[in-house]
UniProtKB/TrEMBL annotation:
It is found in: Cell membrane; Membrane. PANTHER family: XK-RELATED PROTEIN. InterPro entries: XK-rel (IPR018629), XK-related_scramblase (IPR050895). Its main location: membrane. Belongs to the XK family. GO terms for cellular component: plasma membrane. Keywords: Cell membrane, Membrane, Transmembrane, Transmembrane helix. It comes from Mytilus galloprovincialis. It is a multi-pass membrane protein. This is XK-related protein. It comes from the Eukaryota. The keyword NADP does not apply. The chain crosses the membrane at residues 145-164, 176-194, 206-224, 230-255.
Amino acid sequence: MIGPVVRHIEYLYHGCKSRSATLSEKDRKNHYKQMLHEDTDAGMMRMLEAFLESAPQLVLQMYIILTETPDDGLLMSIIRPVSMVGSWIGVSWSLVSYHKALRASHNEEEIGLSLCGTIFYYIWRACEVGPRVVVLALFASQFQYYMLIAVAVHWATMSIWVALQKPEFYRKTIDKIVFDVVIGYILIFCFQNVQSGHTRYRAMLYYFVIYAENLVMLVAWQYITTQKSAWYYFAALGIIPGAIVIHIVVQLLYYKCCHPRSMDIVCCINPVENYNCYQSVCHEIKSNEESKADTGVNNGQTFEV
C-alpha cells in the first residue's frame, strides 16, 4: 500500500522540479519525463490493486446474492448493489487511467486521449470486465469449486502464454516469473499487452478464448440452474452476449474515430494499442539529444505509439 504513496510523492517532486526556474531547460525536461514515468508506475499499482481487491470482491458479492436467501433490510439491499457498481466503475477506470498515463510517458508530445476517446475506451473496458465478473459469479453459483478449477487453469494458461512472449522487463528469473503470474492473473478479467509490435493476432486469440469461456459458462449455468423464474435469469442471458457485441463495436469505433492517431489506422488492421503492459521506471531518463539518437528501444522493448 505504500508503493502508490511513494510514487505520488515522487511525481509531485519531479513535477515541481520540472517547473523550477533555477534549473536549466535540459534538467527541467528530464524531471518532466521522470514525472510521467512515476505517474505510469502509480497507475500500474492502482490497476493491480483494483484487480487484486475489487475484482474478486465483485465476484464474491455477486455469488452471495445469487446463492443466499435475500433477508437484508431495505438499506443493505440498496447499499450492496451501489457498492458493486462502484467497484465495477473503479476497476474499469483504473484501466483508463493507466492507459492515459502510459501514452503520456512513452511520448510526451503525443496527442492525449480526447474526451470522446476516454469515454469510448472506458465503455470498451467496462463491457469487458463487467460481463466477465457476472459470468464467473453465475458459474460459481451452480458449480462452486469447479469454477475455481476453471479459473486456475485459465490463470496458468495465461501465465504460460505471457512467458512464451518473453517480455524483457526484468533480468532475474524470479522477477520474470512473478511478472508472468501477475499479468496472467489480470488476464483472467481483461486483455493486457506485454509485447511490442502489432498485437491484433494476440488480441484476437485472447478475446476468442474469453468469449468462448463466457458463453460456455453461461450455457452451463442456464442448463443447470433451477432459478429460471428469477429476475436475473433472462437479464443474464441478454447481458452477456449483448456486452460481447457492444465490446467489439465500441472497440472498433474507438480505433476508427476516437484514437489520437485514428487517421493513421487502417480499419481492421490494428485493433489493439501497441503499448506494453508495463515498463519499469527503474531506468535512466535520457536527454533530448540522446533521445533523438535513440533507436526506439526501451528496456529491450520497442514501443510503437
